[in-house]
Design brief:
66% helix; 11 helices; 231 residues; mainly alpha
Length: 231
C-alpha cells in the first residue's frame, strides 16, 4: 500500500495537475487533424468512423496512418516523461523514486490512465475518441519498458492466430495487469489497480468489436479494401 509521506499533499496536488495537462494533451485527435490536413475531411465519416491509426491508414493511406500512429504514441511518451520530471522536482529529489515498484509509482500510473482517458474521451470532439492502443503503448513503453515491449507478444499472437486486430488488442490489454505483476512484483497495489483500470478501458472501447465477433461480422486483417474497426 501507499506509505505515509509528509509531502503527500504536495505529491497529490502535483499528480492531479499532471493528470489534467496529460488529459488535454493526449486528447489531441491527430487522426482527425491529419484527415483535414490531407484533404480527406472528417475521417469519422469514413471507414469505421474511428480517429485512430487503422482508420487513418484506410482513409488517408500509409503516410497519414504512419503520422497518426507516431503522434498518438509520442503524446503518451511526452506526457509520461514530462510528468516524471515535474514530479521529481516537486515531490522527491530522486527521479528513480517515480519508477515502477518505488514509493511514488502510483502517481505516474494515474498519469498513464489520464493519457488513455484523454485519447478515448477527447474534449475536442465531444468526448468521443479512439480506442487507446497507440497511446497505451506509448505510456507503457516509457514508464514500464519491459511491460510495454512484452505487450507485443499477446498482440501478435492474437492477430496471427485469428487475423483480428481487435482480438490482438484486447488480448494485450488483458495481459497488462499480469505483465506488471511479473515484471514489477514490488509495485504498489495502487499502481496495479490503475493499470487494471487502463486495461478495462481498452477492452470497453472495443465493445463494438466484441459484438461483431460474437455475430461473426468482424472483418479480418486484410491489405485489401475490407473494413475493420480501427484503433
Amino acid at each position: 500500500m501507499m506509505p505515509f509521506n509528509p509531502s503527500m499533499p504536495i505529491t497529490v496536488g502535483v499528480t492531479v495537475g499532471c493528470m489534467l495537462v496529460t488529459y488535454l494533451i493526449c486528447g489531441i485527435p491527430f487522426g482527425f487533424i491529419f484527415g483535414e490536413l490531407f484533404g480527406k475531411g472528417d475521417i469519422r465519416k469514413s471507414g469505421s468512423g474511428n480517429i485512430g491509426t487503422t482508420n487513418a491508414l484506410r482513409v488517408g493511406g500509409a503516410k497519414m496512418g504512419a503520422l497518426t500512429l507516431l503522434c498518438d504514441v509520442l503524446k503518451g511518451v511526452v506526457c509520461v516523461l514530462a510528468s516524471r520530471t515535474v514530479m521529481a522536482m516537486f515531490c522527491d529529489p530522486s527521479p528513480t523514486l517515480l519508477d515502477a515498484g518505488q514509493p511514488c509509482d502510483w502517481a505516474l500510473s494515474l498519469v498513464c490512465v489520464a493519457a488513455l482517458a484523454g485519447h478515448m474521451f477527447t474534449p475536442y470532439l465531444h468526448f468521443k475518441g479512439g480506442k487507446g492502443i497507440a497511446v497505451g503503448f506509448g505510456v507503457c513503453v516509457t514508464f514500464i519498458p519491459p511491460v510495454g515491449l512484452s505487450l507485443w507478444v499477446p498482440f501478435l499472437i492474437g492477430v496471427i492466430i485469428t487475423r483480428y486486430v481487435s482480438v490482438g488488442s484486447m488480448l494485450a490489454a488483458i495481459s497488462l495487469p499480469f505483465l506488471i505483476w511479473f515484471w514489477y512484483p514490488a509495485s504498489s497495489i495502487e499502481m496495479r489497480v490503475a493499470f487494471a483500470v487502463l486495461a478495462i478501458l481498452v477492452v470497453w472501447a472495443h465493445r463494438s468489436n466484441i459484438k461483431k465477433l460474437v455475430h461473426g461480422n468482424e472483418s479480418k486483417l486484410s491489405f485489401g479494401s475490407k473494413k475493420e474497426d480501427a484503433r
